[in-house]
Write a structure and sequence with these properties.
Elements (H helix, E strand, L loop, with lengths): L2 E7 L1 H5 L3 H10 L3 E8 L3 H7 L9 H8 L4 E8 L2 H9 L12 H5 L8 E3 L3 H11 L7
Antiparallel strand pairs: 1-3, 1-4, 2-3
Bound molecules: adenosine-3',5'-cyclic-monophosphate.
Length: 138
Amino acid sequence: MPQRTFSIVKPDAIRAGHAGAVLAELDKAGFRIVAIKKQSISKAQAEGFYYVHRERPFFAALTDFMSSGPLVLMVLEKENAIADLRKLMGATNPANAEEGTIRKKFATSIQENAIHGSDAEETAAFEIGYWFAGYELI
Ligand code: CMP
């Protein structure tokens, strides 16, 4: 059974002109794009999305960064999508990311780390529903 996950190409990767290259990595790894849109988000939208991190010291900087420019929001599908995307992304901190991962190739810091991917099934369901209506999932 294919599984769905949610992903974001973050503003740093878009600004650096890497959006197409990130999408190519996802395509090469066998992810099907269920839904995709490029947009800028407000600080309040970023705060709602990252609500679980609201007590973290990096919350203000993270939500400033995520609302600092356009991003690409995506719902992706494949067998084992959640774990496979996390593996393809690499460690949160690009300094610890394995060779060949998206963050190793495109991320510049622990915050400006090029891509987001859901970390569990419940998170994926929340994140997909936060950004997409059911009729957009095709
Ligand atoms: P993401 O996978 O989108 O989930 C939460 C984000 O918070 C993470 O990627 C990073 O961009 C950011 N983040 C996590 N840990 C730190 C940290 N220690 N300092 C700054 N930003 C962080």
